[in-house]
Specification:
The complex is a heterodimer.
Chain A lengths: L10 E5 L1 E2 L2 E2 L1 H17 L3 E7 L3 H9 L4 E6 L8 H15 L3 E5 L2 H14 L2 E3 L4 E4 L5 E7 L4 E6 L6 E5 L20 E3 L11 E8 L10 E5 L8 H10 L2 E4 L1 H5 L20 E5 L5 H4 L7 E6 L12 E4 L2 H19 L1
Parallel strand pairs in A: 1-4, 1-6, 4-5, 5-12, 6-11, 7-11, 14-15, 14-16, 16-17, 17-18
Antiparallel strand pairs in A: 2-3, 8-9, 9-10
Chain B lengths: L4 E6 L2 E3 L5 E2 L6 E2 L5 E3 L1 H17 L1 E8 L5 H10 L3 E5 L9 H14 L4 E4 L11 H9 L2 E12 L4 E8 L2 E8 L2 E5 L11 H9 L4 E3 L18 E7 L8 E3 L2 H11 L1
Parallel strand pairs in B: 1-6, 1-8, 6-7, 7-13, 8-12, 9-12
Antiparallel strand pairs in B: 2-5, 3-4, 9-10, 10-11
Helix pairs in contact in B: 2-5, 3-4
The chains are: A alpha/beta, B alpha/beta.
The structure holds flavin-adenine dinucleotide (FAD) (2 copies).
Amino acid sequence: MSVDIEAYEDVWVFVEQHDGVVAPVSWELLAKGRELADETGDDLVALVMGDGVSALAEAAVSRGADRALLADDPVFEPYRADPYGEQFRALVEERKPSIVLIGGSHTGRDFAGRVAVPAHAGLTADCTELDVDDEGLLLASRPTFGGDAMATIKCPAHRPQMATVRPGVFDAGNPTEHVSDPAAAVEEVEVVVAEEDTLSTVIERVVGDVVDITDADVVVAGGAGCEGNFAPIEELADALGGEVAATRAAVDEGWVEPARQVGQTGKTVRPQLYVAAGISGAVQHLEGMNDSDVVVAVNTDPNAPIFENADYGIVGDLHEVLPELTALVRAKQEVTA
Amino acid sequence: MTDGWNIVVCVKQVPDADDVTIDPDTGTLNRSDAPAVLNSPDRNAVESALELRAAVGGTVTAITMGPPVAKAVLQTAVGAGADGGVLLTDRAFGGSDTWPTSLALARAAAELDADVVICGEESTDSSTGQVPPGIAAHNGWSQLTYVESLEPRPDEGVLVGKRDVEGGYERVAAQLPVVVAMEFGANVPRPAGLHRKIFAETEFEPVEWTASDLGIEEQVGLANSPTKVGGMDTASPVERERVVVDSVDDLYEHIEEVV
Ligand SMILES: Cc1cc2nc3c(=O)[nH]c(=O)nc-3n(C[C@H](O)[C@H](O)[C@H](O)COP(=O)(O)OP(=O)(O)OC[C@H]3O[C@@H](n4cnc5c(N)ncnc54)[C@H](O)[C@@H]3O)c2cc1C
Ligand SMILES: Cc1cc2nc3c(=O)[nH]c(=O)nc-3n(C[C@H](O)[C@H](O)[C@H](O)COP(=O)(O)OP(=O)(O)OC[C@H]3O[C@@H](n4cnc5c(N)ncnc54)[C@H](O)[C@@H]3O)c2cc1C
């Protein structure tokens, strides 16, 4: 069931957008896709789908895409798996991309899992490294079993070679250069889906602004040990000029918004300082913060695995330790001010 | 749909937590080293299947693809209250990536005339989350992933799912048949009932289907998997100082060095 591999070229990046706002992970992948396309000598193509989103296609060109494909129609807003999937299937059949990169957000994973099947594509999940070999084959590496091992996955006989990447893994940079006429590199494609053929309807959508913690230099994270009181976390983060983050356990309790979840199914952060308070150090959490420069742990349990994964730790109650720390930080700031 | 919905719940057997090793030569899992358990997110799938049955009537059938010992996860599902179980087992399935895995589950679900297929968010061993949308795509069915709760509307032939999306939530009405992936932790799985558990462990026998029973023997296994594990490296563990200090003052000094 292999395909004519030679017929497939170009690196595509799926530009995930909601209500005209691009998910930051898409720009991270566009920057990575630029590197890959330069290595293989292919074009970097941004795929933009939505309703009235031509400006986003132009933005993708300004950010380094050689071209943008624009599927612009009310059927594509808000996102739904079935019309997006059907449009993508048609585009892949016609245009034959070699590589397709998709953000590992809930939307991106919903999309990627659906579209890989009709394309008979290989899809590697949650990659943390992407490279190409001498033959231009994508080398997609992902951690397995809580980071003990890295598996490099290839897709030798099928196209496209698809990969998802969680937010924060790659750097978006700020590659906006002056492109005199970005609109000239945008191609509006034929829309192949009709509303009456769709299988689902979004009957309600309640979304607010989404914070982005992935670029923070200081992250103060709390876990189940906060027991509903995140004030000590927030105050220390505030004093240090950092962002608040949390484990999935704390997010599930509703103490913190989901966009602040760090870990395998959340964000990847790599700050200079990561404070983990009331966090046990489960593998799924470590995966999202292991690249931090310095890790500080506060935990009542001296045997908590987080201490094995921290530079500096203190055995103690976070509700006492953090306010003391905050006071020390503030005192120092007043002296220097 | 007077006699309720055919609800299929997909359960996967996984190695228990961290007790997994990797064969450095083949890059494959030494699954035999670790005790095998039910993938914990699938407990949320089973619970939600049972709740759905209570709401609309019908049956819950658990399916798993795996070696014969994977029968154990079907027993767990039946112990919790599933009506029956199907074991997809065949050497031909060996080495399948998510493409053939979702094909096998999709065919089995179609064979069972499923109205709703419920999966877990992702597995704890390879955690791609690609199987549920894959099942939907193979069958051309609708899909609802990252679902916090379900609201059946049997009169309309529709299942509404509240999905966790970036920055909030959305409610999506999906036509049947539909494939659902429940969010891990979305509900509190009920414990097995004593009688049901005894039944599951003594009398229950799963239906067994092979790849050829499903007509897909030429489409599964390693040879038909687009992805290939090309190499396995032990990730170099991050070096940490692992200094435990006695006072907050000492801790502060270390923090001050960084910021
Ligand atoms: C498929 C899947 C995906 C997952 N993805 C993620 C993910 O992306 N991110 C993530 O974080 N988790 C994830 N998890 C969950 C993960 O396995 C752990 O359950 C979770 O990280 C635990 O969170 P926690 O450390 O806050 O809670 P716990 O493990 O309950 O730890 C709480 C800690 O707080 C300490 N403590 C209690 N009271 C105090 C106090 N007063 N002061 C100081 N310390 C105190 C305790 O000693 C304990 O060590 C995932 C799980 C699965 C199955
Ligand atoms: C180290 C490693 C990395 C891998 N990476 C990839 C990859 O990037 N891409 C790829 O295509 N394959 C990959 N695979 C292969 C993949 O593990 C298998 O295809 C696996 O059987 C299904 O994928 P999953 O566990 O990720 O399922 P997920 O999609 O995470 O599972 C979601 C839900 O689907 C259901 N489900 C999944 N599998 C079964 C089953 N066997 N029986 C019943 N229900 C099930 C369960 O409800 C489960 O909660 C990898 C394998 C290994 C060993």
